[in-house]
Amino acid sequence: MDYDVLVVGAGVTGCATAMELTKYTLRAGVLEAGEDVCTGTSKANSAIVHAGFDALPGSLKARFNVEGSRLMPALARRLDIPYRRNGALVLAFSPEERAGLEELLRRGRANGVEGLELLDRQALRQREPRVSPEAWGALYAPSSAIVCPFELTAAMAENAAANGARFHFGARVTAVRREGELWALETQAGCFRAPVVINAAGLGGGTLHNLVSREKVSLVPRKGEYCLLDRKVGGLVSHTIFQLPTRMGKGVLVTPTVHGNLLMGPTALDVEDPLATDTTAAGLDRVIQQARRSVPELPVNRVITSFAGLRAHPEGEESDFILGEAPGAPGFLDAIGMESPGLSAAPAVGAFLAESAAYLVRASVNRSYDGSRPAVCRPAELSPEERAELIRRRPEYGRIVCRCEQVSEGEILDAIRRCPGARSLDGVKRRTRAGMGRCQGGFCMPRVLELLSRELGLPPEEITKGGGGSRLLWGPTRKRGGEGE
Ligand SMILES: Cc1cc2nc3c(=O)[nH]c(=O)nc-3n(C[C@H](O)[C@H](O)[C@H](O)COP(=O)(O)OP(=O)(O)OC[C@H]3O[C@@H](n4cnc5c(N)ncnc54)[C@H](O)[C@@H]3O)c2cc1C
């Protein structure tokens, strides 16, 4: 299949790029190895839209973080996704750490971050009463925000698809070759060709880069483990609370989420396996110890789940995003090494890459681009009268499937029917939160599986948790109306 531009990877970077590409008159395709969007690093991170005070001035991280953070509020409004500007605090635990805060302040101002302020102990505790009394002061960044990374990625993909981009799932790129002016990408779903390729393949991006470029890169999976706490304690703090960053990253934070939970983590440990998203007792213990240093009252008996994500860290100290044409590979554009603040930067990175690609294929502005996305119906946000009216018209919005998060059948059907829609239990969970609550899907999973099976026209045994071999059912234990087996 031929395109003008092919994006490899449907994480937040690839989906932002696909959305931006549809603002031009070109044929855009997205090749994704997984069964859905947001199955890589974009699904497991801190979900912070960083203000941009941490990145080295003059770096790509600094530029695209600050630009992305400025674009995010309007993007969230037009795509109808949750976003909250809750502000961040970086704590210092001794007068000696003041130099660290001053360095962040200096970097932040050089990067163009607005509203930064140093707080003394009293001003800090007025802003966030539950921080440790040991905290001696803080850097306050009012423009730091929180977002839902799943909804952001899925919404950008939907907008891209509605404006003409085509998504191909189960399409892992296994070989790349030059055919005249074109790149030919071999996948399990066939061969795709385009003069311009955008490599947004996350941890897989280094391998693709090395297939075509004379200058090799090495991406190290850097694991970060988290604990997620119940919504009952989501209001314990209102800001995102950091400690001073270290050589390995931004350190362990405590933050509310846009859905009202409390999140603590991540750790930072280099590993070899790019699929090692398991959590460990030692890692989670470290998260708890470090998080309690910032907020001593953290009720760890309210942890409802733990998870881990993998940063695609380019080898070396103070490494940067790798963005732009790969050396020796004309038309092959990289967007790799997208560790933090890659989520915050995605809208700006997508716009930059799309503009570069449009220039290369001589595309012009697409005047019929539609920036909106069909609104998501969220009954829980309606007044009782509005909800009653909705249920009268659409009874499926009155049938609650996930009791913990109060998700209705109507919302699950909507998530499956959207384009690209949910194809697995995780796909439904990320779009609707069914299975994200206290029981972690114990009650709603069979019903969600049934709905997926019915809507996709697949036998229940073929429905997976998250694509690949993650089937949940293996066959009947008893034949209906017949003898037991
Ligand atoms: C612990 C942790 C905390 C973080 N916290 C934050 C934060 O708070 N704020 C922030 O701004 N950033 C944060 N980040 C960084 C952010 O999550 C990433 O920058 C971002 O998600 C990267 O997105 P991506 O689309 O580039 O990669 P991914 O989301 O990994 O997407 C890459 C996609 O490519 C696909 N793929 C791979 N190989 C192939 C192939 N050969 N063919 C086809 N498809 C392929 C994968 O299946 C995947 O879906 C954090 C990261 C981690 C790990």
Helices and strands, with pairings:
Blueprint: E1 5-8, H1 12-21, E2 28-31, E3 48-49, H2 60-79, E4 83-84, E5 88-92, H3 98-111, E6 117-120, H4 121-127, E7 137-141, E8 145-147, H5 149-162, E9 166-168, E10 173-179, E11 182-187, E12 190-194, E13 196-199, H6 205-212, E14 219-229, E15 240-243, E16 253-256, E17 262-265, E18 269-270, H7 281-294, E19 303-314, E20 322-325, E21 332-336, H8 342-360, H9 384-393, E22 400-402, E23 407-408, H10 409-417, H11 425-432, H12 445-456
Helix pairs in contact: 1-5, 1-8, 2-8, 10-11, 10-12
Bound molecules: flavin-adenine dinucleotide (FAD).
Describe this structure in words.
This protein folds into 3 domains: 5-42 and 150-218 and 318-360, FAD/NAD(P)-binding domain; 83-145 and 220-314, D-Amino Acid Oxidase, subunit A, domain 2 (D-Amino Acid Oxidase, Chain A, domain 2); 379-462, Arc Repressor Mutant, subunit A. 30% of the residues lie in helices and 22% in strands. It is built from 12 helices and 23 strands. The strands form 6 sheets. Strands 9-2-1-13-21-20 form a 6-stranded mixed sheet, sandwiched between helices. The N and C termini lie far apart (47 Å). The model has no long low-confidence stretch (mean pLDDT 96). Residues 8-14, 31-34, 39-42, 45-48, 50, 172-173, 200-204, 208, 224, 266, 309-311, 338-344 line the site of flavin-adenine dinucleotide (FAD).
